[in-house]
Design a protein that fits this description.
The protein is of the alpha/beta class. It has two domains: about 140 residues, Medium-chain alcohol dehydrogenases, catalytic domain (Quinone Oxidoreductase, Chain A, domain 1), CATH 3.90.180.10; about 140 residues, NAD(P)-binding Rossmann-like Domain (Rossmann fold, 3-Layer(aba) Sandwich). It contains nine helices and 16 strands. Strands 3, 5, 6, 7, 8, 15 and 16 form a seven-stranded mixed sheet that branches. It has a six-stranded parallel sheet with strand order 11-10-9-12-13-14, sandwiched between helices. Strands 2-1-4 form a three-stranded antiparallel sheet. β13, α6 and β14 form a beta-alpha-beta unit. The radius of gyration is 19 Å and the shape is globular.
């Protein structure tokens, strides 16, 4: 089978290679991967920009969708349609930028009938994370009539899907991006207005004018600090990423004077029931026409170059990899 293999011996390398299926790691479900995708973590791994890979050599790809070939897991049988997200796949266990993968049945989610394998990977971990963020804000009680919702990193994968989901649910979305040329793209996804990320990316004052009923943040660092300082009394910020940085240079002031809630959102180790609920909500709430507008499809052979472009900030929306 063909796979995107990462090696780190004397030097790091990432290249598509032919490997024997007998080399696949242990797993109780063997699958055919029809489509994969490139998420931010895939970009980190494929470019060796951060030490996300813990086992060498590694087959890249934290996401995959296709059909089960054989199974020793009671919940899965040959021919079942699946979605794989996270669980250390592509980091500590061979991933899905490959024609086949050997996985654990407990990791897999049933692909909703509303989605093809390609559409599932157009969503991928980025879109599934966006849905987890929306669900977290809903559990906190945020409603469309409460006011504007800010989405940071809006032209990226998480941000693009978050804009489409929130606008479709009736929220008035303000999209933050550093790419002025993407304003029309974001408005087509449903953004009411677009703001320059520069206004949010500088060091934050502890308390600022109240602007947001809620925030979906995939950026972290100063951007998250500013978002917290601008969130209205009783509002909530769903934090799921660190594109600007892992630090959070803020104070307790928004939490103790404005009752702001900071909601951490993890997609990698989320329990299976929550994953399935998120995918079922995506099938119900995500406009597939908007999804199609944010997708670029590439081949497996193009994945290394596209991962480099992703890390250079030259990609918008979602990248689907046809295997």
């Amino acid at each position: 089978m063909r796979a995107l293999v990462l090696h780190k011996e004397a030097v790091f390398s990432a290249a598509v290679a032919d490997i024997a299926t007998t080399e696949l790691p242990a797993g109780d479900v063997r699958v055919q991967v029809d489509y994969s995708t490139l998420n931010y973590k895939d970009g980190l791994a494929i470019t060796n920009a951060a030490p996300v890979v813990r086992l060498w050599p590694m087959v890249a790809g934290i996401d995959g969708s296709g059909t089960v070939l054989e199974s020793q897991h009671p919940d899965w049988k040959a021919g079942d349609a699946f979605v794989q997200n996270g669980w250390g796949v592509g980091e500590t266990h061979w991933g899905c930028l490959a024609e086949q993968a050997s996985l654990k049945g407990d990791w897999l989610v049933r692909r909703p009938a509303a989605f093809s394998a390609r559409q599932a990977m157009a969503i991928g971990t980025a879109g599934y994370t966006a849905m987890l963020c929306v669900m977290a804000l809903e559990r906190h009680g945020v409603k469309p009539e409460d006011g504007d919702v800010l989405v940071t990193g809006a032209s990226g994968g998480v941000g693009s899907v978050a804009v489409a989901l929130l606008s479709g649910l009736g929220y008035r979305v303000v999209a933050s991006t550093g790419k002025a040329a993407e304003a029309a793209y974001l408005q087509a996804l449903g953004a009411h207005s677009v703001v320059d990320r520069a206004a949010l990316s500088e060091p934050a004052k502890p308390m600022q004018a109240e602007r947001w009923a809620a925030v979906v943040d995939s950026v972290g660092s100063h951007t998250l600090a500013n978002a917290l300082a601008q969130t209205r009394y009783g509002g909530a910020v769903a934090a799921c990423g660190l594109a600007q940085g892992r630090d959070l240079p803020t104070t307790v002031v928004p939490f103790i004077l404005r009752n702001v809630a900071l909601l951490g959102v993890d997609s990698v180790m989320a329990p299976r029931a929550l994953r399935q609920a998120a995918w079922d909500r995506l099938a119900r709430d995500l406009d597939t026409d908007k999804l199609a507008s944010m997708v670029e499809e590439i081949s497996l052979d193009q994945a290394v170059d596209k991962a480099q472009a992703l890390m250079a900030g030259q990609v918008r929306g979602r990248i689907v990899v046809k295997i």
